[in-house]
Specification:
CATH topology of the largest domain: ADP-ribosylation fold
Strand order of the largest sheet: 1-3-2
Number of strands: 9
Number of helices: 6
Structural class: alpha+beta
Shape: elongated
């Protein structure tokens, strides 16, 4: 598969594993898993025919590791970013002292007033480094990177989770823990 095909299939999988599984007849379990065989059949029925080898290639080559297979390889799910209700079963873990969030300038006034909120997702997504946060922010325009005082948040009782692909999750980042990355 070429890069264009990988991107097309990745976007299709994201839409249906994170947001609208019912559109193609999928019903994820509580943890977001669907059987690989069910996914492939649903894709075929909806004109996105994909072999199991092609699916495994898309998962392996996805630069952000958006998808994961179960240990037995029989199920698949999105790693994070769901708007459907899922429990990824991630334990709370101590964060590094500082995390980062990529955004755009137009959002700063609301962010510095209300903090970072999950919006239509289940958690706020944070990055472990400025380069990743910058890439995230660039998806919506000229990126601005915010510094999150994760150590202070954790000391104040905020919980953090770490996904398999290195994205940090938390419920809300109050504005007092944020500063512009200089």
């Amino acid at each position: 598969m070429d890069a264009r095909q990988i991107t097309k299939v990745s976007k299709y999988l994201s839409r249906h594993l994170r947001h609208q599984p019912e559109r193609i007849g999928l019903t994820p379990d509580r943890a977001g898993w669907v059987a690989v065989a069910d996914l492939l059949e649903a894709c075929r029925r909806h004109r996105m025919a994909l072999s199991e080898d092609e699916l495994r290639e898309v998962v392996a080559r996805n630069d952000k590791k958006r998808f994961a297979f179960s240990p037995d390889g029989l199920r698949i799910r999105a790693s994070q970013g769901h708007t459907i209700t899922v429990d990824l079963g991630l334990p709370a873990v101590p964060p590094p002292d500082v995390l980062y969030h990529g955004t755009v300038g137009a959002s700063l006034e609301a962010i510095f007033r209300d903090g970072l909120r999950p919006m239509d997702r289940h958690a706020v997504h944070l990055s472990p480094d400025t380069a990743t946060a910058q890439r995230v922010g660039a998806r919506r325009g000229r990126p601005v990177v915010l510094r999150v005082d994760a150590a202070a948040m954790a000391a104040d009782g905020h919980l953090f989770q770490l996904t398999d692909n290195g994205v940090w999750l938390t419920g809300h980042v109050p504005a007092r823990y944020l500063s512009a990355q200089g």
